[in-house]
UniProtKB/TrEMBL annotation:
Coiled coil: none annotated. Disulfide bonds join C30-C45. It comes from Hevea brasiliensis. GO terms for molecular function: manganese ion binding. It is found in: Secreted, Extracellular space, Apoplast. GO terms for cellular component: apoplast. This is Germin-like protein.
Length: 170
């Protein structure tokens, strides 16, 4: 009898391990509280009863950035500082404006992939793989095209005359 209990306990434990998954969030959101200096995986959460629609909104992405600088591009980052409702969600958004032949210099995002859409013009994009071959993957994109850069890989974008895209970093 005792051996059956042990066997059944083992079977139940085995199935519970197989059915395990990531836990759901403990709360629907954690709007950043600008008045609190404590950091909790981001910023401290605003009291949910005080949250408003404006905590999840930003106006101004339609405004072009100033590209008169040495690289000929301007990144307008929309993060938790501009949309407090992004706190702890692991996502941000950016608009990049380019002067003719402007570049978003090689860079990487250690904890996030990047996806973007070309709104106008043409862009050359590329990244370098981290495998032993260190392959260079590049493509010319046009209006309406979408491209993804995997997390942690060095990548760039270069305007081929005129263009604009809105990358969504996830």
């Amino acid at each position: 009898m005792a051996s059956r209990v042990v066997f059944l306990s083992f079977v139940v434990f085995s199935f519970s391990s197989v059915l395990a998954s990531d836990p759901s969030s403990l709360q629907d959101f954690c709007v950043a509280d600008a008045n609190n200096t404590a950091l909790v995986n981001g910023f401290a959460c605003k009291d949910p009863k005080m949250v408003q629609a404006d905590d999840f909104s930003f106006s101004g992405l339609h405004l072009p950035g100033n590209t008169s600088n040495p690289v000929g591009s301007k990144v307008t980052l929309i993060n938790v500082a501009k949309i407090p409702g992004l706190n702890t969600l692991g996502v941000s958004l950016a608009r990049i404006d380019y002067a003719p032949w402007g570049i978003n210099p090689p860079h990487y995002h250690p904890r996030a992939s990047e996806i973007f859409t070309v709104i106008k013009g043409s862009l050359e994009v590329g990244f370098v793989t981290s495998n032993p071959e260190n392959r260079f993957i590049t493509k010319i994109l046009h209006q309406g095209d979408v491209f993804v850069f995997p997390a942690g890989l060095i990548h760039f974008q270069r305007n081929l005359g005129t263009g604009l895209h809105l990358p969504f970093q996830v």
